[in-house]
Design a protein that fits this description.
The chain is an alpha+beta fold. 22% of the residues lie in helices and 26% in strands.
Length: 216
């Protein structure tokens, strides 16, 4: 029995010595558990509700509701956000309902390249980008690393459209836009060449790129 206690004491000493405090020990334990569970997310520096939703492929409104957040939805580093009931990135929507949206480039001069849940349009820098439907701008600018100047628009019925790597942006966060409104110019911010990287989501879940072209 004494030997068992000694082994347990040694193990605890090693664990505690690797952490600067009991708080960091608790945080390390929670972080260790988190990959096996999608119930919670710990906010990192620079995170926003929209960047978290984009990274985890979940509905931002669900994050807001689950955590009882109030406008302007301020979050802070190490804050623990409840994700229970969220749909994860593995659950890509197979959208079959035919809805006539405005084409994001206002034309179909080239077929978009299918890249997972994204449509990538390789077009000359500076051409106009349009909102696919009426909605409200929820992101406007380089707010989410990796997407350059990004416009994100919330549409009726749980739809969300994303326009990445824009050059100049003509709309501001909180602004209402009409279907076909010019929202930006195509660019190459955080991209190797001029492109529009477009995605459409329903209730936070990306719609497969193979189905997106059917909507325009």
């Amino acid at each position: 029995m004494i030997k068992c206690y000694k082994k347990l004491l040694i193990a605890l000493t090693v664990i505690i010595s690797s952490c600067s405090s009991l708080d960091s020990l608790k945080q390390s334990y929670e972080n260790f558990l988190s990959p096996a569970s999608t119930d919670y997310y710990f906010v990192k520096t620079g995170d926003s509700i929209w960047s978290i939703a984009l990274t985890l492929d979940i509905d931002p409104q669900l994050l807001i509701k689950n955590n009882k957040l109030k406008k302007p939805y301020v979050i802070y580093p190490n804050q623990k956000l409840l994700l229970a009931g969220a749909v994860t990135k593995n659950d890509i929507v197979n959208e079959t309902k035919v809805i006539k949206w405005h084409h994001p480039l206002g034309k179909k001069s080239k077929v978009g390249i299918k890249d997972g849940a994204w449509l990538v349009f390789k077009e000359p820098k500076g051409i106009s980008i349009h909102s696919i439907n009426i909605g409200k701008v929820v992101v406007s600018g380089p707010d989410i690393p990796g997407y350059g100047n990004l416009v994100m628009i919330s549409h009726p019925d749980g739809y969300l459209s994303l326009y990445a790597h824009c050059d100049e942006i003509f709309v501001k966060k909180g602004e209402d836009v009409d279907k076909g409104s010019k929202i930006a110019r195509l660019g190459n911010t955080e991209a190797a060449y001029p492109m529009l990287k477009f995605q459409l989501r329903r209730n936070g879940v990306p719609i497969q790129a193979s189905n997106l072209e059917l909507l325009f």
